[in-house]
Design goal:
Distance between the termini: 37 Å
Strand order of the largest sheet: 1-2-3-4-5-6-7-8-9-10-11-12-13-14-15
Radius of gyration: 25 Å
Strand content: 15-25%
Number of helices: 20
Length: about 475
Amino acid sequence: MLQTLPPEIALFIVELADEAERFSAAKDTSLSFHSNVVHQLSLVSRYLRDITLPIIFQALTWNLGLNPLLQEPAASKRRTNAQACARMLLERPELRKLVRTLRIHGENPKDNFDSEDAVELYSIVSEVLPLLEDVRVLEFHWTPLTAGLHRAIQSMASVSSLSFTESYVYEADVSKLSNIPPFAAKELKIEPLLQNTRALSVWTRLISGPAITSLFLGHNMVAFHNLNFHKASLASLKKAGVVIRWVPNEEKKALDFLAKCPEVEDLKVTFLRQDRKIPVPVSDTSLPRLSIYRGGYGCAEEFITGRPVYDIDLNTALRPREPALHGWMGHDNGPLLKVLSHGTVPVRFLRFAVTTWRASLLLTVSELFPELETLRIDNQGNFIHETWQKDDGVAAVSRLRKMRQLFVGMSERNFEDIDWQKGVITKWEEVNPTLKEVWLTRRERWIKYGTKDWKRSVRADPRRPEANPEGSAS
């Protein structure tokens, strides 16, 4: 049937099937850019293989599986697939032009890198990378930075975003990397393993290029005292991020680094605890242009007060149950919300998490942030319907006259209550005509209310056969 359709229609159908499978259930897709259904379709016929190849090769993940201590079949299969894909790219130039994103996961402890498989695989990787002329995003995890890999990366002029997490430099390679130029990518994320001073100094040199506009540093880089950045090398930095452990004096090192970044507009501060406060005050002269704050609520006041922050995201780095563990209880955090309004400009985007709903929280938000355009509240506990249906809840929505988007986190049980969704969202739209989009969560995925995706979700619920998802969304 598909073979009788025009290629662009068949491609659209395949893309829909791919998206439906990837988001049909809650699962970690961070290591898989496309679903298994695409691979299965590629094996059906030559026609479908030609249709699916652009999807498969647009974003690739190579799990090299080099750890000899983990010889289970899955690791061996991942390694074989990575080798086959790399060799295919070497032999077929037309496929190389399709690749836009490449993630490489080494999965090997550094002392086992000299194995025969590892040497062969990294040799292939270093050979393939310079040939990928259209890659925009390049990410490495658990991989060693060698002189050969650095040369390959430097030859990729198209890469704009480069990331190294849990990566490392061999002691034998430190001298080889001592005089190499810094990375040319504009966006860098560097979270290396903790090593000696000589190894960490290599990373410092590599991330001091003048073209960087976004830089995120892991806690080992923050803890490394000799971050010898020149102010000139950070003059163009617009986006910065730091990871800070609960270690004495580490906060000061992070603030010293941020003080050298006067043009930063977007800041992400990650702690191991979101309620962690910085014991060292942030200088009033630091980050004068800061407009986007993403990080823990414990130190939010220090970074927001007196600065032109209009975008606040307090849930950007939370683990699934972290708010409950650290006391992020929405109904008693009026004082915290008040602190968030101490910037010099009105807040237009606000995101935070709660464990228990109260109508008073909504009223507080509407009073403190009347200029909100987007409100996102991630629910980590029980969603209480009555909170939104009460007069105070509806009144809060009506006061936010500029709000166009509302994201409401809810549990799976609450998502099944179709009657409640229709009733309360209809009230919101009646009292606030500027509200154009309402998003709800199901299985950790945001679904826009009233769309075909929402109707499919509620129709698929076997426990609500009497539900009528075809009703009007307005």
